[in-house]
From TrEMBL:
<dbReference type="GO" id="GO:0016787">
    <property type="term" value="F:hydrolase activity"/>
</dbReference>
<dbReference type="InterPro" id="IPR042047">
    <property type="entry name" value="SleB_dom1"/>
</dbReference>
<dbReference type="InterPro" id="IPR011105">
    <property type="entry name" value="Cell_wall_hydrolase_SleB"/>
</dbReference>
<keyword id="KW-0378">Hydrolase</keyword>
<protein>
    <submittedName>
        <fullName>Cell wall hydrolase</fullName>
    </submittedName>
</protein>
<feature type="domain" description="Cell wall hydrolase SleB">
    <location>
        <begin position="19"/>
        <end position="135"/>
    </location>
</feature>
<dbReference type="Pfam" id="PF07486">
    <property type="entry name" value="Hydrolase_2"/>
</dbReference>
């Protein structure tokens, strides 16, 4: 399906953080838009929400299969509500959560502790929102 960037962002927000409340969903939208807007490193070569969302192995919700099994929790199966559209519009308009910094990564550690770096030493822990840990780029990220 050919979704607009707005709908694609709303769908990835719902799929990745629909159970994390408004702040959690805004944080995920911020990460996607930070990747769209960064001008250097690996994500500096991506320029649209579509390129960011569908970059290989970045968002489980953008995958129809995981480990050879159908992934029922994918963005195509999301039923959007007004809040998902509102958050996508908020992020595309240039808004970001101020306590998030310029986070480029998030993940759920399935534990109480966030590791200090993610996905490697290119990302440094900045904040936990709900079940997700968020990471800002370090100087090493520029070389990716």
């Amino acid at each position: 399906m050919a979704y607009s960037d707005l709908e694609l962002l709303a769908r990835i927000v719902k799929c990745e953080a629909g159970g994390e409340g408004e702040n959690g969903m805004q944080a995920v939208a911020s990460v996607v838009m930070n990747r769209v807007n960064i001008t250097y490193g690996e994500y500096g070569r991506l320029h649209t929400v579509r390129e960011v969302v569908f970059q290989q192995r970045q968002f489980v919700c953008a995958m129809e299969t995981v480990g050879g099994q159908y992934n029922a929790q994918n963005l195509y199966n999301m039923s959007l509500e007004q809040i998902h559209w509102d958050i996508a519009e908020w992020a595309i308009a240039g808004n970001r959560l101020t306590n998030l910094g310029f986070a480029l990564w998030f993940f759920n550690p399935y534990s109480l502790n966030c590791r200090p770096n993610f996905p490697s030493r290119v990302g440094e822990f900045v904040i936990r929102i709900g079940d997700h840990c968020f990471y800002n780029p370090t100087d090493a990220y520029a070389d990716t």
